[in-house]
Each structure stands twice: as C-alpha cells, then as structure tokens.
Amino acid sequence: MTNSRIAAVDVGNDALKALFGKLDSELYIPNVIARDIEDRPVIGIEELDEKDPVDNLHIRVHSPALKDNNAIYRVGNLATKGSNPTELDPGSSKSEEDQTLVMLFASLALDAVSREDKSQKHHGNNRNVVEANYTLGTGLPLREVKEGKDVGYRSQLLGSVHQVEFLVTPRYQGMKVNIKFDEVKVYPEGFAAFVNLVMDNDLNVINKDLIDKQILIQDIGGLSTDIAVIRNRNVDDDKAQGFNLGVAESLEAIRDEIRTKHGVELDSRRDVVDIITRKNDRHHIMVKGSRTSVHDITDRILLELAKKQYRYLRNVWQRNSQSEICYFVGGGSAVLKEYLKSLNNSLDGFNIEFFEDENESIWMMANAYYKLVSDFVRKTNRDKKQEKQKQEATSAK
Fold this sequence. Notes:
This protein is α+β, with helices and mostly antiparallel strands. Helices cover 39% and strands 26% of the residues. The protein contains eleven helices and 18 strands. The strands form three sheets. Strands 1, 2, 3, 4, 5, 6, 7, 8, 9 and 10 form a ten-stranded mixed beta sheet that branches. Strands 11, 12, 13, 14, 17 and 18 form a six-stranded mixed beta sheet that branches. α5 (189-198) crosses α11. The model is unreliable at 116-125 (pLDDT under 50).
C-alpha cells in the first residue's frame, strides 16, 4: 500500500471535490456529464493545449463497473456547454449511477496524468499509458449505507482495471490511464461530517465540547437528506434517518419557472445555485440585456423546501429529545441557510449551527474522507511493519 496514492473523493450532486496524496493536489469538477462523439469539433484547435484540462474534459471510459461501457463523455464545465447535459435525477441512488463512477474515474485519471511523479509506471515503451494505483476514501448517503449498497459499490471498484482515455483534452490528448484500487473505504456521509467536526488531519480531537455530546447532523444534498444521530462518538444506525428529498427538484422548478416567465434558458442546476448564492446581484438574471429580479420565484420555492426540511429536523429531534445541537451541512444547507434560520427563530428555536465559511461546508466531506482513509493507511502500514519485525525476530532465533 506504500506505493498506492491516497484519494479522498466526494462525488456531490453539485460537484466532485477530491484531495490527493499528501494534500498536494485537489480537484473541483461540476457533477455534469454529456454523451459525446470521439472527434468533438474545437474552435482554435491549435490553441487547445493552452486551455485548462479541467474545463475541457473529453474522455472515453472503459470499466466493467459501468452499465454503459466504453462510452464517450464531456465532463464538468465542458458538459454544461453542450446540448444534452445530464445531472443526477431526484430519487436515484448515487451508488447505482454510471455518472457517479464516470466522475470518480475522471478525477483520478486527471490526478494521475497531471503528476510528474517518479513512481509512475508506464506500460512497456508506450509513454501514453499511465498505471495508477489508489487507496480510495469516499462516501455514500446514510440511507444507501443502511440498505447495504456500499458493499456492492466497493466490490465493483475493487478487483478490476478501469481505463480512462483522454480524447480532445488539452495537454493529455491521446493518453490513457489504467486505474486500480488497492483498497476502497466507503463511509456513511453523516459520520464523515462528525469526524470532520471534531478531529484534525491526524484524527486528534480538536473539539472537546462536541466529542461526547449527542448531536444531530442534517446533511442536505442535491438528491437526498440524511439526519445522523451521533451518540457515544458513533452514528446510531437505528435513529439515523434518510429522506429522498434534496434541493435538486426545487432548483429544477426554479429553472423551469425562469424559462416560462422570462424566456431565459439556464444551462444547468448549477446556474440556479450561482444565482441564489453569489455575492453580487443575488437572485437576479439578465433578460434581453436588462438586470431582472427573480426573487419572487426563488423565495417561494426555496421557502417551501425549507419548511419540509425543518419538519424533518423537528420529527427527528422529537424522537431524540436529548440532542444538544444540530449542524446543517452539505450544499443544500448553504442554499437554504437563511430560510431555515428564519423558520427556526419564529418556531421552535432549536440549537442549530451552520458553517459561515461556505468553502468549509463544500469541502467538508472530502476533508473527512481524507482524514479517515489516511488513518486507515497509517494503521495498515504500522501493522505490516510490526508483522515484518515479528517475522524477522522469529527467523533470527
């Protein structure tokens, strides 16, 4: 495992966030893909290599884990510019979607080709094939882990070679990456959020006030909401709840209403999130060159969703009355923060917390997976070293 590179990957509904190695590399890629042809047309092909590969990801993915094997995709920002971008559908399971795997493989392949590492092994004399071994830490919604879907997800990654071929992508055109997993750790997202709250990168406790409290963590994602109940430093599996409601449906509803009312076609749900959360001109769009408010649309739809999310919180808190605080995490919490705060102030007045640093909230899961998988690698290497010392001592007698 010592030659295996650590990868901590959070395939969020809005975007993939990934941390690699000794925190020497990170990636942020919008979670949008679009089926494409092999030889996509490019304006200014001679300037292609001057562009950012992350913004121009064009790949073929071969993996026995995929339902649709050997397909060609635009990924991330490039996919949003096409006519057929696909985002994960409400009601779908992250662990069972090709899109989750395509995003995962794309991020690992990007990391592998961008590294100028002496340990990279090339296939024979073909300098265009990179062999990449990873120890992966990732996660699934609590609901999917409770249903046992983490087992199938892990097994389809292990034991196979997954190949990503870069097609019309700056700098890496024609390169192939063979990805192998030495180990895959799949963590429940609620527990990962708790780990990130109370521990540093070496898993030392940094928040002693929280460590032994009974706390709730409400993780509002794009497709689902998980409420983890943490007691005795562990997720209480019986009390944890998962709901098939995230922010995706509301974002689609806002997008549809903007199209109907203003005749403006937004490319993806990401554009809606940008309108809601950006610092300047929030809740405004351009209509025929004029700055136009869509606050009436966003306010009504998001308040309705916030009321449903608040009901979830109230119901779980009633069944776990000794809880001391609820932390709201996930991309959906950033979108609904002001609405949830306002509802709480006028209704129950629960002790709730949000992360004021949006970046911290966005990277929370990737950071947690990194802490957990790094600790796993440390312990495994230590155990191997001790076993080797024991064998050497035995053979010396």
